[in-house]
Amino acid sequence: MSFQFSLKMRALSVNRYRGKTAVLATKHEKLWAIEKPMLTGLGMSLISPPGIDTDALGTFSGEVERDGTPLETAIRKARLGMSITKLPFGFANEGSFGPHPQLIFIPGNQEFMVFIDDELGIEIAEQTISTETNYNHTNVSSIAAAAAFLEQVRFPSHGLIVLPHNQKRSRPEKAGGAFSGKEPLTLIKGIRDRATLEEAIEFCKSQSNDGLARIETDMRAHMNPLRQRVIRRLAIKLARRLQRACAQCECPGWGITGVAGSLPCEDCGYPSQEAPAFEIHSCSKCSYSQKLPRRDGLTLVEATYCQRCNP
Ligand SMILES: [Zn+2]
Ligand SMILES: [Zn+2]
Fold it and tell me: In whole angstroms, what separates CA 140 from the centre of its chain?
C-alpha cells in the first residue's frame, strides 16, 4: 500500500522507536497481526508475555461486563501490559461488533488500537470500521437446521460459541427477591469442529427452557481470521501514524484528530450536515494543528444527498 496522505507540510520521519521494545497486552494471540507492521514500519519489537488477563477487563461473550468505551478499555489493557513488564511503550487493541453506524442492517466490526509512550507522555489511538465480518447468531434445534448459517459464518475456519437460548435457572428464584441474573452461564467457546459443535448444541438445548441452542460467532481474534485481517490493517494505519512527526515539536503520531466545516451542495450551496469540508491534523504533545482539505478531494456534495434539494 502506498502512503496516500498528501500533507502540505512534509512530515518529518520518525526513528524514535527503532530498536525499542513495546508490550502488546493480549490474551488472544493478536501478536502475529500487529507485530510485523510495527517491526517493518517502526523497527520496533513487540513482546506479549503470558499471564496478562485482558479478559478481566471484559469479554465479548458477556461473562465479564465491560465498562467504559472500547477505547478506554484498550488504554487500560495497554497500561496493564506496561505495568506488568515495566516497559514505557505499550500497544493494545479492542474491538466491538454490531450494526454498522452508517449502513444499518449490515454488521460492522469497529476496532481501536492504542499506543502509549510514557517517555513522551502521549497516547495515540487509531480506529477503523469494517463490514468484512461474520458477526452473527442464530437459534437452532439441531446442527442440520444450522447448515446455511454455518456456511455463511465460515465455520469451521471461524470459531463459534454455543449456549442455551433460554437458560434454565440453576437455583430457584428467591421469594420476593429479583433474580440476580449473575449465575454463571453455560457457554461453550472456541468451537472449530463439527463433532464438538453437535455435542454443544445437544447439551445447550437440554439446558434451555425452549429446547433451542443459540449459536454465536466467536469474535476473539484467534478464532476469527476475518477480524485478524481488520486488526492487521489497523496496525499498519497506526504504524504509519507513528512514522509522522509534528513539524513544530517533532513528537511522533501526527495525524487526523477531527473534522471541521461542511461541504456545500453542488446545486444550491446548502451546507451538508454529514460531509465535513476539512480534516484537522494535530500533534498529541503540543498544540500545533493544521486544517487541511479532505484527502479524497471532494469539494461539493451531490444534490441527491442535499437536505434542502432532496429532503
Ligand atoms: Zn442542495
Ligand atoms: Zn507538536
Answer: 29
Domain assignments of the chain as residue spans, ordered by start: 1-134+221-250, 137-218, 254-311
What tens digit of pLDDT does each residue of 223-253 get?
A: 999 999 999 999 999 999 999 999 999 999 9
Question: In angstroms, what is the span from residue 228 Cα to ligand 1's centroid?
Answer: 42
Which residue, 233, 215, 239, is CA-closest to 30? Answer: 233
Distance from the CA of 89 to the center of ligand 2, in angstroms?
19
Measured in whole angstroms, the distance separating CA 3 from the mean position of its chain's CA atoms is 23
Q: Domain 1-134+221-250 belongs to what topology?
A: Maf protein (3.90.950)
Which residue bears the cell 512527526?
245
| Nearest-10 Cα torsion for 21, 19, 122, 130 | -70
Q: What is the pTM of this model?
A: 0.83
The residues facing 95 across adjacent strands are 111
| For the CA of 285, the nearest ligand | 2
